[in-house]
Write a structure and sequence with these properties.
Length: about 290
């Protein structure tokens, strides 16, 4: 894991460089787990006194650490397998993440569960309904709205970042406004991950383009200049774009605005993607 300066997408309101954190993991039969603890502070002195690894069972790449500081000790847990029950430091959890603050006597004063259904230990228990999931029924790309197939939205969801899974790539968008139980607004968020002109279609599904596409991922939705869904991005071949669908008709990319060019746009999310609304539950002794 390392930090560096990098060049973001070329957009008018973006700076020339960003700070990036890059994580690399390569090799075969890897079983090691590395946990990084960030300690943000300004002009004051560092406040973390000690960090220790906490054993997690089952050993599936999940991680837990114990962080001791002036206010007590925090036990922090995270997993890529939130449906599996894990044990760590005398606690059990079924969820994405958990945080437990202990006082000087080792008694939990705060317990917090993220994207899960249960966290228990030391005589206390936190439960939740877990992540609310639905499928995107439609996206209003012109008015920045997302409509789901199930009425899972609540007023308390405003401001939350929700995970969107294409089945091949995961992204996140923010709920800026709840319109009804199935529809929310993205506000001014820009879903475009690639744009170009269609010069022709060969081999049934190879879109001949006029530029490199850097930020598209397999599974992302491809629309025409009328924001109608054409299919899904599969791969990039130099300036060309391979679609996941075996056949893409030429008329799918009509010149709708009459400027002599046929455009394609790759969107971060689209109909058929799965959305997960994060859940949080708390216990506090105060």
């Amino acid at each position: 894991v390392f930090a560096c300066d990098g060049i973001p997408q070329r957009r008018a309101n973006f700076p020339k460089t960003h700070k990036w954190v890059i994580r690399r993991r390569s090799g075969e039969n890897l079983s090691s787990t590395f946990a990084t603890v960030f300690e943000p502070f300004n002009e004051s002195a560092p406040y973390i006194q000690q960090v220790e690894a906490v054993a997690v069972s089952p050993s599936d790449g999940s991680a837990a650490v114990s962080v001791t500081h002036a206010a007590g000790t925090d036990i922090i847990f995270w997993t890529a397998h939130p449906e599996t029950e894990h044990s760590f430091g005398g606690y059990t959890v079924t969820g994405r993440a958990a945080c437990i603050r202990l006082d000087a006597q080792g008694t939990p004063t705060v317990m917090r569960l993220f994207d899960g259904t249960q966290l228990k230990g030391a005589g206390q228990e936190v439960t939740s309904d877990g992540v609310a999931r639905a499928t995107i029924a439609s996206v209003g790309y012109e008015n920045s709205t997302v409509t789901l197939d199930e009425p899972v939205l609540r007023d308390t969801h405003v401001g939350l970042w929700v995970m969107v899974d294409t089945g091949q790539h995961a992204d996140a968008v923010r709920i800026d406004e709840i319109i009804d139980e199935k529809t929310f607004s993205l506000g001014k968020q820009d879903l475009r991950c690639g744009i170009g002109n269609v010069l022709g279609i060969t081999d049934g599904n190879l879109i001949q383009g006029d530029r490199l596409i850097y930020f598209a991922h397999p599974g992302m939705t491809v629309v025409n200049e009328g924001h109608e869904t054409v299919g899904h991005f599969a791969s990039r071949e130099r300036n060309d774009m391979r679609m996941a669908e075996k056949t893409v008709p030429e008329e799918a990319f009509n010149d709708l605005d009459g400027d002599g060019r046929r455009r394609f746009i790759i969107m971060a999310i689209g109909p058929g993607d799965t959305i997960g609304i994060p859940a949080r539950a708390d216990f506090s002794a105060n």
